[in-house]
Amino acid sequence: MTDPMTLKLDDCRALDAQDPLRDLRQQFMLPEGLIYLDGNSLGVLPRAAVDRVAHAVIAEWGQGLIRSWNSAGWFDLPQRVGDKIAQLIGAEPGEVVVTDSTSVNLYKVLSAALNLAAADGPGRRVVVSERSNFPTDLYIAEGLCKARGLQLLLVEPDDLSAAMTADAAVLMLTHVNYRTGAMHDMAAMTAAAHAAGILTVWDLAHSAGAVPVDLNGVKADFAVGCGYKYLNGGPGAPAFVWVHAHHVERFWQPLSGWWGHASPFAFTPGYQPAPGINRYLCGTQPMLSLTALDCGLDAILAAAPFGGMAALRHKSLALTDVFIDLVNQGCAGHGLAIATPLAHGERGSQVSLSRAEGAYAIVQALVARGVIGDFRAGDASGPLASQLDILRFGFTPLYTGFEDVWTAVEHLRQVLESGEWRQPAFAQKNAVT
Amino acid sequence: MTDPMTLKLDDCRALDAQDPLRDLRQQFMLPEGLIYLDGNSLGVLPRAAVDRVAHAVIAEWGQGLIRSWNSAGWFDLPQRVGDKIAQLIGAEPGEVVVTDSTSVNLYKVLSAALNLAAADGPGRRVVVSERSNFPTDLYIAEGLCKARGLQLLLVEPDDLSAAMTADAAVLMLTHVNYRTGAMHDMAAMTAAAHAAGILTVWDLAHSAGAVPVDLNGVKADFAVGCGYKYLNGGPGAPAFVWVHAHHVERFWQPLSGWWGHASPFAFTPGYQPAPGINRYLCGTQPMLSLTALDCGLDAILAAAPFGGMAALRHKSLALTDVFIDLVNQGCAGHGLAIATPLAHGERGSQVSLSRAEGAYAIVQALVARGVIGDFRAGDASGPLASQLDILRFGFTPLYTGFEDVWTAVEHLRQVLESGEWRQPAFAQKNAVT
User: Which residue of B has its CA nearest to A237?
Assistant: First the structure.
């Protein structure tokens, strides 16, 4: 870790010069003059996607037409892209498919997990999650629990262990928290859940491509994740789903569409689920978006010769350490607090800063200066510390350098020192920031 | 109707010359030398989509990044494209959203319909459909019925009326049959269902953009449809969903994700469904594929000055009449039968030919000659007439001309006369044709 009292622009430039991953940035089309610290919301454009998507439109769709299901490999693209994701999350080839949205996939796996729990141990009628889990995960769980007459129990992170009782069927957690960047110990949590007879469902939205994940190593049960954040798949790219080999063939998932059928082109009456993870497919998938995601994965897998996810994690921690140091060094006295855990093992690839007021306007003032982070409102129903609004900064080691971090914090310092964030224009909220 | 005994190539050219819609074809990028009669499976590429998708990749994603949720209008694209589809299916602005796949949307509306039926009339425990409905529709219904302990009753078309009993909750039908092209009378079926206290769920996969549909006019209850067939949205384009205004706010649909929330960006705990059809959204949608679909819709709406869907239907019937006449005229004695109803009111925009053997190889021999139709296997569990294999030809009046029809049938005649379809290479089945 660098010395926070002496970290200068030249030090950051030296860190970039020593960075073995620095050339991976050339794979991406970064807007001129922009420092993009929001890859945890929407990853940037891989250069290869420009030609690949154009090819999918003009050659595969335009010229190949229906023949491209075979000739362009559309039909097994969910599996081929899934196999690339598998390499990032500790899964085997053939264990991951790319399909639908994270929310829809969560519905599938939580349904299957509840069926599995009911078959294995009747009487378990509680789904345990974190109160501060990503809202859509809780909405999906709320809907399923309501439909099945089950209880959704939401607790603070410190109370998760106590909630793992004989009533609990499923522990549903997001590995890295979207607001704070706090990361669960997946191995320990999964082991504790299993010791209590509870199945685990992990949302890897802020983990896949951001931190090393070893689903088979920790013996997780079910996992889903997002294609357009750290996987750089483009806006609304399809999501992915993984199920442990022990469970995958025990149940149908409820969205029993043709693409999850054992013989999808037989068009036979009577649903027969496909072997393995393919049964988690449902309807036809958006090939243009899936093609873009394939390029995003290639850009991550290009880090393999340099150490892959371990090397990316090493740089991510260095970037976030530098950011934290620089904020502490340059922005002291402005009411900012580091809301992300400082311990390496307890955080993902983002740093969140909390502030009692003005967080939204400060984010907007930074955007006006070409530094893009994002804003997340305080959690009014949570404990005191989580009621503060958040300035959120994602660090994507594939395309973010140490000089970017220095420049971003310098802009933040100037925004705070100058008070320019108090301009009325920065206070107006748009739908998305 | 033309005289089947005298229809010549010059007659077809004359029909093209008189066709007021002939210039709409210029909107599409048709492969040189190909006659594409498979737009009922995957519509062709609208020229505008090439630049629009490239713009979405390079400018909206690449340069705009997260800001494009607002600045490029990503956030309301499901509604804006939905409003265009609404114009084709007799729905009002704000009644249709584009999202997910047809199968996933069918799960949502059938779930909601069953909840509605249970609330309005307990004891109705049967979902009625056609045995020859599209398999994925039946798979979804089978899964839902299994999970809820309901019965899925599958009958032949002639037995649908008898199946509308006091036990029936929902009548789920595909408007135009994917194999035969037979079209239900949506107004009469819906009225009969309502008279028996039964809700209707319509799949418009082979109707939207192909035949006039008037959902509000016939007082349908729920409808879903496909984006990549007659709507020309590109491979796996998102699907659409419509619910009658009387029902739309009575229930959650089960896939209660963030995009269907009343305040999707408030990130508040506790699901509150959005007003109206927006609650049928779930997770983030694939923007590149959605952008392509928007272009497909524009290409159909360009027919509005010429009479819109009524004019497209007029031409579609003329094309299919000519095809039927030419097949009867040129291909007699080769064991082909017209499997599509001849009456205009009873068919969609395709013509299916049945044959006791060789249908697959004949389709392949046509493909080798640059005439693309497709093959559907006989329905072994069905009545005798439906056990025959099908050669399926879709006619999309936006980009198909009468000379195309003449040339296609001439190739079919030559394939049959020459017996070239008996070559072993044409007998090998791929996954998709």
Answer: B286
Q: Do residues A36 and A180 share a domain?
A: no
Closest CA to A361 of A334, A380, A379, A382: A334
CA A354 to chain centre: 21
Residues A380-399: what's their mean pLDDT?
91
Q: Model confidence over B115-161: pLDDT tens digits?
A: 999 998 788 999 999 999 999 999 999 999 999 999 999 999 999 99
Task: Determine the average pLDDT of the residues in A37-46.
Answer: 97
Q: Are residues A280 and A321 in the same domain?
A: no
Query: In angstroms, what separates the C-alpha of A6 from chain B's closest C-alpha?
Result: 34
Average model confidence (pLDDT) across chain A: 95
CB B116 within 8 A of CB B197: no
Whose structure tokens read 């037995």? B159
Residues forming a β-bridge with A376:
A390
Q: Considering only residues 332 to 361 of chain A, which have any Cβ-Cβ distance to chain B shorter than 8 Å?
A: none
Rounded mean pLDDT, B62-77 = 96
Q: Which amino acid is at B107?
A: Y
Same structural domain, B125 and B253: yes
Distance CA A182, CA A157 (A): 10
CB atoms inside a 10 Å sphere around CB B201: 26
pLDDT reported for residue A430: 55
CATH number at residue B247: 3.40.640.10
Q: Where are the alpha helices (DSSP H) in A174-307?
A: 186-195, 287-301
pTM (predicted TM-score)? 0.96
Q: How far is B308 from chain A (nearest CA, A)?
A: 24
Span B275-296, average pLDDT: 98
| Number of neighbouring beta carbons within 10 Å of residue A26 | 11
Is B228 at the interface with chain A, CB within 8 A?
A: yes
A218-247: burial string, b at 16+ Cβ within 10 Å, e else = bebbbbbbbbbbbbbbbbbbbbbbbbbeeb
Q: List the beta strands (DSSP E) in B233-378.
A: 240-243, 337-338, 350-355, 371-372, 374-376
Residue that terminates a domain, selected from A301, A319, A346: A301
Could you give the 3-state DSSP secondary structure of residue B227? coil
| pLDDT at residue B385, rounded to an integer | 77
Q: Are residues B261 and B126 in the same domain?
A: yes
Judged by CB atoms within 8 Å, which residues 94-153 of B form the interface with A? 100-104, 107, 131, 135-136, 138-140, 142-144, 146-147
Residue A410 has which token pair?
């310098």
**Which residue segment(s) compose the domain that B248 sits in?**
75-301
Our count of domains for chain B comes to 2
| Burial class of residue B268 in the structure, from the number of CB atoms within 10 Å of its CB (0-12 exposed, 13-18 middle, 19+ buried) | middle
C-alpha separations of A105 from A36, A78, A218, A258, A336 in Å: 29, 14, 21, 16, 37
The pLDDT of residue A1 is above 60: no
Put simply, whether B376 touches A (Cβ < 8 Å) is yes
Residue A383 reports pLDDT greater than 80: yes
Paired residues of B391 in beta bridges: B353, B375
Chain B residue closest to A273 (CA)? B139
Q: Using a CB cutoff of 8 Å and minimum separation of 24, what contacts does B59-65 make?
A: B60/A235, B60/B287, B61/A42, B61/A45, B61/A234, B61/A235, B61/B287, B61/B288, B62/A29, B62/A31, B62/A44, B62/A45, B62/A50, B63/A31, B65/A31, B65/A34, B65/A36, B65/A38, B65/A42, B65/A44, B65/A372
Residue B266 in contact with partner chain A when CB distance is under 8 A: yes
**Residue A182 β-bridge partners:** A347
Q: Is residue B146 classed exposed, middle or buried when 0-12, 13-18 and 19+ CB atoms within 10 A define those classes? A: middle
Interval A168-182 mean pLDDT:
97
- Per CB-CB distance under 8 Å, the chain B contacts of A101 are 100, 257, 282-285
Q: Fill in the DSSP letter of residue B174.
A: E
Q: Which residue, among A170, A136, A175, A134, has the nearest Cα to A152 in the 3D structure?
A: A170
Report ipTM for this prediction: 0.96
In the set B25, B108, B229, B347, the catalytic residue is B229
